[in-house]
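Here is one such protein, fold included:

. . .
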Amino acid sequence: MKQALVVIDMQEIFFLEPQNFLYDKERVVENINELITKAHEKNIPVIFIQHTDTEETDEMFEGKDGWQLHKGLARASSDKVIQKTKWDAFYQTELLNYLKEKEIEQIIFAGAQTEFCFDTTIRAAYSLGYQNNLLARNTHSTITSTVLDAEQIIKHHENIWNNRFLKIVELDTVL
């Protein structure tokens, strides 16, 4: 099955200010980098999704520090970067066409934020026919909310996704 690794919104905003720090951010970046390295070794396309706000005053407006893809990621010049303006990485972007061009049958997801863009894109992919997708444990994260802490949000979403929208596997078995 032809695969692609899609890394969603791993941007500097989550690494610059303590109030925006992703839960367990060091481990998540390390695990995502392991996925990226393995994907590069196996010639699996790596696609970075970059949230881009449309208002100049927003923290993730193009060119601002928080908008940049995280400098700690193991990116290669051959990796694809797709900007999005909504939570769904497929909405009004080239992602679906790119996956079709590459004849991708399975998406491996990683990134942030669990309950926002990450969740929305996972569900959209399923609705678009990508129904055999994978998620390695500890390769996505979020920020604690006023209702639930980040770990609870992650566990809740993984419980909903697993064996419905994708299959959750151990990191060393994903590629």
Summary: Residues 113 and 151 are 12 Å apart (CA to CA). The chain is about 30% helix and 20% strand.
